[in-house]
Amino acid sequence: MDLSFMAQDTLTAARQLLGKKVTATVEGEVTSGYITEVEAYLGFEDKAAHAYQGRRTKKNEMMYRDYGGIYIYTMHGHHCMNFITRDAASPEGVLIRGLEPAEGFEIMQKRRGRTDHLTDGPGKLTKSMGIRRDLHNGLRLNEGAITLSEGKKPEVIKESKRIGIDNKEEAVDYLYRFTVAGNPHVSKDRVKPAFNNGWQ
How many alpha carbons lie under 13 Å from residue 155 in its C-beta half-sphere? Predict the structure, then answer.
């Protein structure tokens, strides 16, 4: 699919990522899901972003690339997957926080060692899909093991505060988290599923 929508405003790109289908092929096994939850991180001016004030390290180097790159970092032993937006001069991106499983459900269960809550969190979804920093950081979407394609359309998009950034001063209050309203496959929010899980 055409990824050029990710070259523009990161907040707009984050909203447009909802419903897109992410597919991972790892060791011959295919899993996929529709994006239900994302968080936008706006680089230089965003105190919650890894590239705040132009910070550049070996860890976040992948943020300084053109849109469509895959940036994976680890936190508390969990891998977190981000899609890079804009261009190499604007280190911004979108954290993929939740997916509605589509393909490879049994594979996800095996990898997670459980039958539920497989993809309702950034670390959960990467484990379910076999996505790891040492294997996939630095790859580009649609040029390797991880692809992005058209999927579903959200009925309503909910805006809220990002999760887990309580020490980032005013950035705590930015409404940069976007979810498919009524979809149960999102982190933290335990909602009663809406009709069709919130899809049009």
Answer: 11
